[in-house]
Specification:
The structure holds two protein chains of two kinds. By secondary structure, chain A is an alpha+beta fold. Chain A has helices at 2-18, 64-74, 77-84, 99-108, 122-126, 155-167, and strands spanning 27-28, 33-36, 41-43, 54-59, 87-92, 114-117, 134-138, 143-149. Chain A has a domain at 50-167: 3-Layer(aba) Sandwich (Glutaredoxin). Chain A is globular and about 60 Å long. The N and C termini of chain A lie far apart (41 Å). By secondary structure, chain B is mainly beta. Classes of the chains: A alpha+beta, B mainly beta.
Amino acid sequence: MRKIILLLTVLIAGYVSMAQSGEKTFHKIPSAVVKTIDGRDFNTANIENDEKPIILSFWALWCTPCMRELSAIAEVYEDWVEETGVKLIAVSIDDSRSTSKVLPTVQGKNWEYDVLLDPNGDFKRAMNVNQIPHNFIINGKGEIVWQHTSFSEGSQQQLINLVRKLNAGEDISDH
Amino acid sequence: MTKKQQKIILLFAISLIFINPIQSFAQGFAGPSRVSGNFQFDGQLYRSDTLIGAPEVNEQMLMNSFANLLFTKGDFTAGLRFEYYLNPIKGYDTKPTGIGMPYRFMTYKTGDFEVTAGSFYEQFGNGLILRAYEDWNLGVDNFLDGLRVKFNPAEGIALKGVYGKQRYFWDHSPGIVRGIDADFSINDLVNFMKESSVRVFAGAGMVSKYQQDELIIPKPGYRYNLPENVPAYSGRLNLSSSNFNFISEYAYKMNDPSSINGFIYKPGQSLYLSATYFRPGLSLMASAKHTDNMSYKSRRTESTTLDINFLPPLTKQHTYNLSAMYPYATQPNGEVAFQGQIIYTIKRRTKIGGNYGTFITANYAIVNSLNRKSIDNDTPIGEKGTLGYKAALFDMGDEKYFRDLNIEISRRMNRDLKVTLQYLNLLYNIDVIEGHPGEPNVKANIGIADIQYRLTPTKTLRFEYQHLLTKQDKGNWAMALVEYTIAPKWSFSISDSYNYGNPESDQKRHYYNATMGYTHHSSRIALAWGRQREGIVCVGGVCRYVPASSGLTITITSSF
């Protein structure tokens, strides 16, 4: 009986929290302290791109699909930026074994992304990231409007198509 | 779940109901509220398979699962996690059994001040004196349960304080852990550095563990005089500029006799140095690490878990099936390691680089034992109850632990075809690293080809062929994999690892596997059927042993 009350209360709490209004509400990026690739502290609530879209990609050096994805996007990133103004922020969840290798890898492969380091996992936990790669699209107002986990060759095309739709004012949350 | 835990959940959920609709006057509770979470279910259905040495599983199916809930409103965040191990999947000795809600916390942040009560994860510097973290795939979760305070008194100074007990299955460690840490951004603190193009960061931390004295008898008529408080200190200095990066950390631990170090009273120390030169398209990195008696646990007699700190191996993490067969793990009692790495991009649209560019990565690592010297003529090296031995910084011993030379070349040949080739030459001291006394060092040559062919913009075929040649341990292996993906939702693969070179003819086994995965947004379901060879799974330098198994594995994950 006690367990049923417990379950009901949790469910009601969840419903009350989510049913704030009839409209779809998007949430802003939560605040967590991470480091920039040159060692400075950075609060993720300050992530912005001049009201243009942002792709937030969680990755790690040991995650082969993540490396494939970021390498594949690197081939077309310049065109993406020129066409849509999008900025890709690659958040590395590498821990201290490989944190020091993130900078040499990004520079050596000539990636032009903004890179953030989250070795303690604070940002990863705040964004509810379980398995990587995990991508989020953020709109011009700083709201998370879409997310997707896993990568297969061709997904990057879907990503840029969604950014184009976002720029055209469409709602992409159901895609 | 205990009555106490049920009460906590009830209180938490009730508070959620009331905080939402009421317009709060307290400044910190203004702002939109948000409930989010994620969950994962890992289940394994076991098939009896004595041929590969798979253990019998009476339950037939085992599962590990968790569900996280996060609630945020304004400056306030709270969260909790349910965990279920009914019963824990084989190979996870550090997972508890049953149902529980061990992780729950509240955080309040305002301006320069943040307080967390409950469970939290934290790291000081590179983790050499403190790292509380979790890795689900490894079965590691040593969160600190207590209080954490973060305070930034001025621009360029970040202070942290922690006090609590570590997670120990469903319970807490016997030892208490407390620590303080400070990070300084020198450019923000020193006037003449403000406009400098070189950024300097310094940091210092101290951790102290307390465990009550206990009776441990080394030999009849004697008992150890055990230190109840054991401190560890660390200092770090990092420099970065537009072409250069330098990371360093030194850690020192006071006498800490334990099961891991054989109850010696020697202090421990570790020095980590890493320097990188870089420019777009080229990076050169050299690093060195000295580790001496740095196991630091919150229970003296613990062997598998309760690490307060984290000692990352310097060596490269390999990600292919056969290249990851012999992974190195840091030897906390002592080792000396060096590593060099080059990453180079041959520009696109050049004769050698091809239309799309060619990427080359080369890495070489060596790890040896510490050169231990006896403290005097009468005391053997490592004698329990004494200072143990002497060892100078970066003084390499004669015993080889690990050698790794690897080269990778990756190139897109045309619009549809991408090729990656890897070669590795390894030396792996299986005696020391895996605890197989008497076995000779494994010397292996490994070749890998990874070819990706795009059939249509969304359908891709990928082939992997791997080969491992060695005269030791289980002998040669050959592995082939075919993967078919339909972006963005579907992926299928079949593979086989064949141990054709096993010295015992009835052990020449095929380890076949078929997998299927479906993803929709942030939800994913994956099925894998087949045989898993016994071996080591490593993530971030922490490894766990996986026994052989056969059957079906199901993973479901989602976040909302």
